[in-house]
Design a protein that fits this description.
Helix content: 55-70%
Largest sheet: none
Structural class: mainly alpha
Low-confidence stretches: 229-248
Number of domains: 2
Distance between the termini: 38 Å
Shape: globular
Number of strands: 0
Length: 248
């Protein structure tokens, strides 16, 4: 691993040392959508010391789902993302949709935040399913072709659009977290209520890893491949700060 210090971006740390993702999750440090922040900035925002975090990272061990495949090509990374994260979301979102309906119908009288939670979840789920479809049908085939040696087309617009949608998804997760007091299980919770809170918490953690792999690993690699033609809009590509057209 490259040397990391207080000035290293948290997204880069998570990319270079996959076990760091678990440390960041525990400390509620956003390493995916806010991956460009330095470790010092991220720690200051959460009131923890940089040295404490560095020590924990040095002793951390990675969950297999945290890491990209070793020496992965863009095609291998896309396979990992679709098989590990997209496939899980396509199964889990319908399950959670049924749970949130059941729990809101049964417990809204004593937990008035539940109708709003249901509304936010359904919007989040619908947007995410559409987002993954666009990646799989439009963006990922372009990146696979680039990986195979085809001439690199302009991908800055589609990538920037996907990153903007990642930020919107992050906003939805933050709303659900706030509405549930970080997925706290109330004393009067039934089994379905408990399963919903556990499922939403796991959903948030998986989304962080999923978005991290795209924002901080896949998209920057695409930027390196197409840099001569103007960059990609990737998380650590300088063109991210320029104005690009977006696609729907």
């Amino acid at each position: 691993m490259d040397r990391i210090d207080a000035t290293t971006e948290v997204g880069q740390i998570a990319a270079d040392w996959p076990g760091a993702a678990r440390v960041f999750e525990r400390l509620d440090i956003d390493y995916c959508c806010a991956g460009r922040r330095s470790l010092d900035e991220a720690c200051s925002a959460k009131g923890v010391s940089v040295q404490q975090v560095l020590t924990e990272i040095a002793h951390s061990s990675a969950d297999p789902v945290d890491a990209a495949p070793d020496g992965s090509s863009m095609a291998a990374l896309i396979d990992h993302i679709t098989r590990t994260h997209h496939a899980a979301m396509k199964t889990e979102l319908p399950r959670l949709a049924q749970l949130v309906e059941r729990v809101a119908n049964a417990h809204a009288q004593h937990h008035p935040e539940l109708p709003r939670l249901k509304q936010v979840f359904h919007r989040f789920a619908g947007d995410l399913l559409d987002h993954m479809r666009k990646e799989e049908v439009l963006l990922f085939p372009i990146l696979r072709a680039i990986d195979a040696g085809s001439p690199a087309p302009a991908v800055s617009g589609p990538i920037l659009k996907m990153m903007q949608e990642h930020e919107s998804a992050g906003d939805g997760l933050a709303q659900m977290s706030a509405l549930t007091s970080r997925y706290a299980v109330p004393a009067d919770a039934c089994g379905a209520y408990r399963a919903l809170m556990e499922g939403l918490k796991a959903l948030e953690q998986d989304m962080h890893r999923h978005v991290h792999l795209e924002n901080n690993v896949l998209f920057p690699e695409a930027g390196r491949r197409v840099a001569p033609s103007g960059g990609c809009g990737g998380a650590r590509c300088s063109c991210r700060h320029e104005s690009h057209p977006t696609s729907n």
